[in-house]
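#structure-requests
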Amino acid sequence: MCENYPRSMDNDVKEKARILVADDVEAVTTLLVTALEIAGYEVEVATDGEKAFELGNSGEFDLAIIDQLMPGLLGIEILKGWRREGLDMPVIMLSGVEDDDIVVGSLESGAIDFVHKPFRLPELMARVKKHLS
């Protein structure tokens, strides 16, 4: 299922990067958690917007991957809230909705990247690695 991306991080990395995955679709979170853990990252999952916001506010994550359409809070609301709190964690926004306003709004609100669903796993993994380097 996840064979087209690097199996591990560089050997000289002393500490695992922590990634927050926020999506309410179990198939997506399962795929991302599996791929990210195999690549050597620590992963925590939030399945609703409030939990994602709370976890992200802890300051314990190096990167977040957030779905735009989450129960409770939209991805862009989570992102804007973090930025208001002064949290500058890199955020990759995901969305299955093809809407330029969502893409532009996310990037203008501080997302470092935007990936449309369905995504190609090797591409998303490359983006994660790039934004953590």
